[in-house]
Amino acid sequence: MPRFEINGSPAKSHVNLVVADTGSWEQAAVFRLEQSPAVSAYVRNDHLEFTIPYEFEGVTHAYTPDFLVRLADDTTLILEIKGEEDEQDRAKHQAAWRWVAAVNHWGKLGRWAFDVCSDPKRLGLRCSAAGFAPSLY
Questions:
Q1: How many Å apart are CA 55 and CA 39, to the nearest integer?
Q2: Is a pLDDT exceeding 80 seen at residue 19?
Q3: What's the domain range around 61?
Q4: Residue 79: which residues within 8 A CB-CB, separation 6 or more?
Q5: How does residue 9 score in pLDDT terms, banded at 50, 70 and 90?
Q6: Phi, psi (rounded to 5 degrees) for 123
Q7: What's the chain's average pLDDT?
Q8: CA spacing 20 to 30 A to 126: which of 70, 77, 105, 134?
Q9: Number of independent structural domains in the chain
């Protein structure tokens, strides 16, 4: 798995090494997360045990999203960096949206959001100063 080292001390993550599943997309996302004024903190969801259960073709799986991002408005954004989607990816993402809706309805874990970013270069537009803005892609 590629590893990406942040030059200098990262301002918004408690780790200085990102384990990336892709050659450049997740690294670009880290750069944008560091630069965005709407982002308070982020972490690559690697070995954090944060998973969302989903079913695909009758089999239960565990979906591990790419990043957890704390936005300036205290929303926790579950962020997936994804180029092309297949049917299994769509099942994962639908499960994440259901999970977010359920957690927000419950109300005891703060506000959550989910997004799939297909262009990390534009990620900063996704996280507006007013909070999560999915229409800005």
A1: 31
A2: no
A3: 3-136
A4: 29, 42, 65, 66, 67, 68, 69, 114, 115, 117
A5: low
A6: -60, -35
A7: 81
A8: 105
A9: 1
**Nearest partner of 4 among 124, 84, 21, judged by Cα:** 21
pLDDT, position 23: 56
Report which of residues 95 and 22 the model is more confident about.
Answer: 95
Query: Which of 30, 17, 128, 34 minimizes the C-alpha distance to 79?
Result: 30
Q: Quick check: 7 pLDDT over 60?
A: no
CA pair distance 76, 2, nearest whole angstrom? 26
Structure tokens at 40: 């308070």
**In CATH, what number is assigned to the domain containing residue 41?**
3.40.1350
CA triplet 130, 133, 136: central angle to 5 degrees?
Answer: 120
Other beta carbons less than 10 A from residue 87's beta carbon: 9
The reported pTM is 0.80
